[in-house]
Amino acid sequence: MSDRSASAVSSARAPRRRPGGRTARGGAAVLTATLELLAEGGYAAMTVEEVAERAGVHKTTVYRRWGSREGLVAAALAAQGSANVPVPDTGTLRDDLIAVATSVARNLESPLGRALAQTIVGQADDPQIQQVADEFWQGRFADTAEVVARAINRGELPQGSDARQLVELSVAPVWFRSVVTRRPVDAAWIRTVVDAALAVAGPQDVHTTTAQG
Amino acid sequence: MSDRSASAVSSARAPRRRPGGRTARGGAAVLTATLELLAEGGYAAMTVEEVAERAGVHKTTVYRRWGSREGLVAAALAAQGSANVPVPDTGTLRDDLIAVATSVARNLESPLGRALAQTIVGQADDPQIQQVADEFWQGRFADTAEVVARAINRGELPQGSDARQLVELSVAPVWFRSVVTRRPVDAAWIRTVVDAALAVAGPQDVHTTTAQG
Amino acid sequence: MSDRSASAVSSARAPRRRPGGRTARGGAAVLTATLELLAEGGYAAMTVEEVAERAGVHKTTVYRRWGSREGLVAAALAAQGSANVPVPDTGTLRDDLIAVATSVARNLESPLGRALAQTIVGQADDPQIQQVADEFWQGRFADTAEVVARAINRGELPQGSDARQLVELSVAPVWFRSVVTRRPVDAAWIRTVVDAALAVAGPQDVHTTTAQG
Amino acid sequence: MSDRSASAVSSARAPRRRPGGRTARGGAAVLTATLELLAEGGYAAMTVEEVAERAGVHKTTVYRRWGSREGLVAAALAAQGSANVPVPDTGTLRDDLIAVATSVARNLESPLGRALAQTIVGQADDPQIQQVADEFWQGRFADTAEVVARAINRGELPQGSDARQLVELSVAPVWFRSVVTRRPVDAAWIRTVVDAALAVAGPQDVHTTTAQG
DNA sequence: GACTAAACGAGACGGTACGTCGAGTCTTTGT
DNA sequence: ACAAAGACTCGACGTACCGTCTCGTTTAGTC
Predict the structure, then answer these.
(1) Cα–Cα distance between B70 and B55 in angstroms, integer?
(2) Model's pTM, two decimal places?
């Protein structure tokens, strides 16, 4: 459906095109440097000047193209957010959801993932950041809806099951623990979370099987 | 980010005229002003200078007592966080959890609540903020554990039920929706969330029992 | 990270109160540095940043105290302009005027004098510069009026003689040559200029007397 | 110094639409725009970009042809300076000189005249500006020398009279007042100035003779 | 009731970063 | 072959806020 280019972040540390660098190439270096700095010290530690220096570009160039610090961050976020996360296909809904939640947990454990998460939440008042965040979630939920669609096809879930709710309930506690309360997320807990989500998915039946009577 | 308004004087908060008065009163005015500014424009818009002015205090005084911007915010957060939220007692666990989650949702809908949430998440890398956040969560989970304790006493839950898990699963989706994806939280959804949490609380039977009864 | 160009030249002028220097002393060093730079390369070459560096002061300090580049220049101009030039007293009006004109010529030959002259003229549209210039001229004409007053006392000039006109006509051509057409000013020419000024000073009598005799 | 107004479009000067238009008619539009901007806000307010926009030409074109801001200004100055001012011929030297001085005064009262004067003085350190200024003065003095030549022919002045000195003494005070001290120039004062100049031109008698006749 | 130490008011300063302006250069594209 | 378009480097501007420091004054706690 949505073919987002899966271009890697390429942590290749900026080639350092110092003086004559007629970069222009697209400014990918700038976005990379931005993400790099976010990963290193979070939003507060990311300065436009440092980004420019790392990208081998002049400060004014950054401002010309991205308008402001927020614009730059938003662009970097968008670039990173559109990097498609593969949707798992294990054969069962439960394992798929566990895989999704685990993937989220892993991501939030990485410095970059954590930094982006904090930025999305902490700078949510900025309209540009907000818009990128909205698009990000829309994309993520659209992607993961496939997991649920397959489950419906397999008969694991009734026709009208709410895909978003299922995924939201599976992922929310992971974000909460990892980003809000900052406590470790382990596999067992993820399983519990997914089971809870499944418990209210569709009209009970699928999960308990016997509650129908 | 660039609003000056030198006059300010704000909402009549600070008596401003403290000729002989030994301020010291505890600096409550400073913390109040801090929260006020956080509520108004979030963490980014809160400046020590503006806080000092609103509190009718000099900037250096703020630094003398709270050390830094983060220290000040941490203190304000602590002051606000320790304001005990009443633990509900409706008679049933489900309604208690719904009440707790609803209370959280209401709080996160308020400008101040939202600002504090964003601060806690966005500035989580700062040790002082982090500590306050840790204490806050510890307190909140301790408080709400009572709800579960009562349920156990009533026989709604088996002895060894995990109070924290129950509350966490009830509250996490609310935070996620409200703070992370920024979508509205309605009562029906809260009920679903709580039901999901209850579904994995204690050995299945409790749940099914409850559902049946 | 940010390599400061080690130019620093600074002809041993600034005490270089680097780190703990709670300068405040009055910022004379800043004004001195300003004049220095003006002398070196004129108005265009004078940057606030360079001034600050030479004065061993931070850029923001300069802006705090003088508001802007123009304000700084105006202050430096005022400081320099108020340095009283001694009014000559040779015994005769003609020699006094020659002395005044010669002094002006010498000043305009110096790099600093030339730079200030060019600044006064070239930046005349700036209100701050303008005001300083006005005060400067007022002061200069007031000072030199004494020369004329003495001449009146000596009977060289009638009572109501126009001091300003006399001085103006003596000095204007010097400025014109030196600053406007940029040609050298020699003593013989100064004598001619002063004679021309004297020729129209007072109600003819002095001149006509001379012409008659 | 900080007025933006990106729209501008100015006083309908530039045709703006030069689709096939090859090689600008000779760049007159550019020089006109330059003078226009100089007249409007002086040297400081004149930017190459604004000039280019008003002339309906691209910035790079300006740089190609005039090399730099100074080169452009020099060219504009030259274009304007070479516009011959008519040399008066009233019949008497005194009236001719008064006419010349008055013409200078009128010119210096106009925004453009004032701006050019300030530029010539303020940017005198730039070699290009300097050269244009030199040529300008050479031309002006050559032109006005005719006035003196005629006076000699009429017998108003002796053969070897110094034309340049006469004109210089007549004009210098006007420049001084108008450009340096920025005070108004009135007709009576101009007469005084010219009389002073005449007083030292040739052997005194000429002046008195003229006055008597 | 005077005396001292802590805390405060006031104000400037060093320092980092922001975002902006304009000069001048270079490359691509078109005519 | 020259010009339009547009992006880029570079140096500087002026501003905001952080956190520090100094000095003088106030006030509280103690003798």
Answers:
(1) 17
(2) 0.81
